[in-house]
User: Fold these one by one.
Assistant:
Number 1:
Amino acid sequence: MSDQEIDLYYVDSAIGDDTVQHISPGRSIPGSRGIWNIVKFLPGGNGDDVQVQNLLYEPGVVGPPLCRAVKRIVRQKSPARDNSLMIKRSLLCMTRANHSVETETSKASNAIPVVRMLCWYHDAFYVYIAMEYCAIGNLRDWIHDYPFPGETWAREVTKQILSVLVELNCSQLAHRNIKPSNILIASALPIQIKVSDFHNAKWMAEDDGLRTQVGNLDYSAPEVRGERDHAGRVTTEYNTSVDMWSLGIVLHEILSGSHPFGRPGHPRYSESRYQEYLGSDSGQISLSLLEGNTSQYGKTMVAYMLSRDPAARPTPLEALGDQWFLKDIRPV
Ligand SMILES: Nc1ncnc2c1ncn2[C@@H]1O[C@H](COP(=O)(O)OP(=O)(O)OP(=O)(O)O)[C@@H](O)[C@H]1O
Ligand SMILES: [Mg+2]
């Protein structure tokens, strides 16, 4: 792992209760210099959270206040729980994910489909990762507030997430925490999403496989959870197809308002329905919650993504070439 790549984004900072002042000049990227005011906290999982900060002062910057989001990760220092390597890895994955989706045009317009990292800093207790702020919020809250957005909308969002997964795969990155709260809405009309949170991401080239149980159980592929695979074997290794499983769950939630292993209207899964699916002979997921609302192509897409056998799931490129994206959508 190259520390240099991460060091480029590091800024020395004086961190107070309400403000943060960046001391070292940092890079010339807006959002990595000046004095920032902490205006609110967005609660997250695992004791981490996200601060929303407004720019108070930056030499030479005038105009509307700039806003950023800062993920605050608790530093675990005891030898048994030391997470410094994990934090370094997530910083590295975030910088690589940013670079993987950057083109000359997107750089110029500052619009990339991955949340842009601005800088990072730390104190004795936390590591802080500053990134662009998506004021509209996340997909979890959006589909809660505007349920059943329709299949055309679902298709567009899925296409954008798949396009990011294509680039991540090319850079040998697995996100490992695709879920609605990590998909941010950059624009509502037209819908434009940004994939965020590379906290659990892994650069595959560093190792011969992925083994750690990470991410949120509701969205984790069976092989991540150490479940038996389709042939009854317990596997401890997995690959980037775990992101396709998670996307299948997200897509099901967008289309039906419910988790595929949950009860109608509930975005959380039930362990017994999940085990039922893993143990079923057919290997086919019951898509009863999609009945009536979703075209056959849409249902097939969800089932394809939620294949128990990781090798049977489509790659992001294969998924993008699926009939669902090419045909007229008519519910059956
Ligand atoms: N750049 C951002 N702009 C706007 N909201 C954000 C940004 N990054 C995160 N959030 C929101 O802040 C909240 C806390 O995020 P956090 O990542 O800590 O928790 P989470 O997404 O619920 O779980 P996880 O830690 O597994 O990713 C979430 O609602 C998330 O959508
Ligand atoms: Mg998150």
Number 2:
Amino acid sequence: MRTIIKAKNIINGVDDSIIKDKCIIIKDGLINEILNFEDFKTSHSDLIFSYDEEIVMPGMIDVHVHLAFSGITDNRSFRAESADLDYGAQALRGYAFALEHMSYGFTSLRDMNAPGNVAINIKNMINNKKLIGPNILACGLGLSITGGHMDQPGWGNHANFTDMTYPCDGPNEFIKGVRTQLKAGADFIKTNMCVSSTYDLHHPYKQEMSNEEIEAVCAEAKMHNVKVASHTSGGPSITTAVRAGLHSVEHGHWLEDETVDLMAKKNIFYVPTLLVNERNFEFEHNEKFTKSKNWKWLQLSREAKWKSLDKAINSNLNIALGTDAGFMLPHGSMNYREMEYMIQGGMSNMQAIKAATQVGGKLLGLNVGTIEIGQKADILVIKRNPLEDIKILSNNENIEVFKDGKKFNKCSILEK
Ligand SMILES: [Zn+2]
């Protein structure tokens, strides 16, 4: 049986303007043919959906999420939720979050560290067709130096957590880290090359992995034919990593010109995560905090991030949409705001939509993100034109979702 999406208006993720009057013919979950209306011949078993006013576009991709976390904004609670929930409970909740992303049109996700292999298990259940859900790539546990960005102190010494992240020291331990994640089923490797430094405003970021460790991770990942993504703040370690084979630069508050040039030359992806930065300024803070160094650092990093985006746009970098959902923001409902910030930063609506579709698809290396023959039939139907108003994507009632060519019945399973 074929499913046909007959649409008068299509954003295909490739062209810069709306494509008119096409029939998208779907077979076995893939886009099999794209025909002009007049060339399409129906057969009695076809399941046909017709759209006149709506905009049909590719399913979107959030390349930076944390399915094991809820997005709670209180620092203590963020840490405490890992203590409250067994990993089984986190996996159940993470699956509900994945569906929430999908209800807002995000049919592919990349998880950037989930304790206890939670995201890998969700992915496996979906890939083995035990559950319906988005395409997921997962890194397992992020690799971090002891006491580094993803191995922070603060718990009482008596508190003992296992499998939160994967601390490594020295090139050999990083190599073991790569192999351990791959054994657990990771699709790519997440590391932390450099970190923010809130106590020193003259040096607002610093390198935390040594050059040898960075090179060891990249070489090992390359040998296993998997990509490396890294949390970054700024400085020469990013250039070192890009030279060694880093595939995507996450955050990159202080991108240096040299780094941007090299990223452009090597086609490296930039995931600016603008929304999570801006979230800091949406909450009420007490005076003690707004007079602190941390607050000044937040302002510095905010300014720097907008400059990095500007450089990235001017150098035509591959900019992909990543929100950091799960950290400081909920899953799904705010994703569209990353596009709003991209537009505020100088990208056109179409460029922002491409960041969420074509570019994200290329970053993932899956056949998603465009409406072309051979691609997965992950397709959205939007009530009105997001090229005119991106906010249309803020309400999931405006979005119909086809996953692998099948209409996804949104269900509300999250208590709100
Ligand atoms: Zn993150």
